[in-house]
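Lecture notes, continued. The same structure-token format from the folding unit now serves as the input rather than the output. Read the line below as a description of shape only.
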């Protein structure tokens, strides 16, 4: 469910017309619904009741401070993969003891920052990282909580580029290595071994690979306890898919939670989850205007939004519903929808059936709240897209457009060119 719907012929975000937002902040721009963010968090969290679980929102899905703060006030933690994401989570009010730090390439500086911050846990992905972390912890006289990330050799996800659990993926260690690594960490006086972690992919629409991975995790935890090694928590990652309006709906959070309860029935262990897309995707849209139409056998709609603003179609062949800001019952026709960037890849969709469009019309890319603004760039020297948060009948610009003139202030000529 989302809170973007037509009212009186105008597409609205909650009680605000998208056309009013476009007039106020310009286009292209991302618009997020507070009500949708809150509802999705509540639905996911309550699905596990009465079990007390940590829901750590995946910051990589949407790193806007206002979005993170909205979820933090609901009780969400944060799943992070860089020092920058940890800093954003802290700025948004996420308590350090609800922050998980993952990633295969954590630098020594990032690990030290996480240790000093006192995050909930650091998910270790290799023996080399474990040794580095132990050395840093010893130097800082801290004892960070850690989990070993397991690669269960279970592939899943909506695209090969977002499948992370196969044996040849760069993430984590094999189940056998995880047991040895966890035992080694338990013996290290500088580390506080807490559990194991797993994440097998994103946009998963079938619960069976998730269940297979979770059964591996239970088995590993049982083996550790059978050897007298304490383990108190499992981080089961994220990945539950969302509807992009061109496919059947994925399993609901209630179905997902029921599967989790089935896997861990009778097993006393704390669980955490890292949903991102499931909470944020349908909570956001990208609004854009039609710059012009090119007269072809199949008309081409050129928008002021481009692949630098929404890159998912270019790199994942991702589908996003497109709705005009003004409701119409006019017969649909086939269009190609593109952006202005000098790349053929700057094509959002081909042969899409849409209502008739004209120059100046406002449209919205649906399900754009995850991996949209956070992946945006300034390619082709374009301004960085702004973000807007709506709550009821109010809206606020929560990240202003980063204009080219501001970007240029970060650059300078070397002396030899200044002197020429």
């Amino acid at each position: 469910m989302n809170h973007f719907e037509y009212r009186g012929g105008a597409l609205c975000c909650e009680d605000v017309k998208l056309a009013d937002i476009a007039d106020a902040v310009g286009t292209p721009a991302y618009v997020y619904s507070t009500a949708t963010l809150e509802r999705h968090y509540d639905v996911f969290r309550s699905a596990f009741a009465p079990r007390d679980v940590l829901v750590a929102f995946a910051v990589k899905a949407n790193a806007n401070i206002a979005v993170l703060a909205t979820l933090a006030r609901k009780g969400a933690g944060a799943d992070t993969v860089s020092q920058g994401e940890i800093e954003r989570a802290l700025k948004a009010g996420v308590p350090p003891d609800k922050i998980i730090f993952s990633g295969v390439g954590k630098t020594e500086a990032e690990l030290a920052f996480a240790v000093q911050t006192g995050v909930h846990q650091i998910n270790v992905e290799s023996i080399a990282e474990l040794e580095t972390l132990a050395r840093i912890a010893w130097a800082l006289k801290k004892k960070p909580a850690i989990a070993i990330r397991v690669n269960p050799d279970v592939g899943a996800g909506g695209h090969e580029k977002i499948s992370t659990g196969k044996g040849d993926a760069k993430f984590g260690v094999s189940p056998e290595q995880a047991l040895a690594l966890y035992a080694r960490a338990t013996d290290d006086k500088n580390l506080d071994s807490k559990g194991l972690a797993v994440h097998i992919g994103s946009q998963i629409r079938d619960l069976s690979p998730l269940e297979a991975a979770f059964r591996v995790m239970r088995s590993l935890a049982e083996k550790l306890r059978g050897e007298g090694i304490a383990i108190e928590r499992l981080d089961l990652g994220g990945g539950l898919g969302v509807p992009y309006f061109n496919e059947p709906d994925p399993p609901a959070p209630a179905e997902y939670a029921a599967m989790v309860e089935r896997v861990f029935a009778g097993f006393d262990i704390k669980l955490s989850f890292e949903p991102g897309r499931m909470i944020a995707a349908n909570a956001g849209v990208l609004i854009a205007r039609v710059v012009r139409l090119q007269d072809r056998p199949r008309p081409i709609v050129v928008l002021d939004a481009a692949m630098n603003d929404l890159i998912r179609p270019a790199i994942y062949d991702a589908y996003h519903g497109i709705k005009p800001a003004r409701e119409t019952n006019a017969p649909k026709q086939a269009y190609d929808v593109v952006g202005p960037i000098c790349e053929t890849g700057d094509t959002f969709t081909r042969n899409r059936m849409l209502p008739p469009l004209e120059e100046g019309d406002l449209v919205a890319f649906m399900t754009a709240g995850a991996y949209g603004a956070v992946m945006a760039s300034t390619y082709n020297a374009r301004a960085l897209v702004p973000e807007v948060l709506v709550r009821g009948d109010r809206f606020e610009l929560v990240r202003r457009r980063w204009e080219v003139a501001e970007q240029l202030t970060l650059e300078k000529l070397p002396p030899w060119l200044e002197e020429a």
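Point for the exam: The first strand starts at residue 4 and ends at 7.
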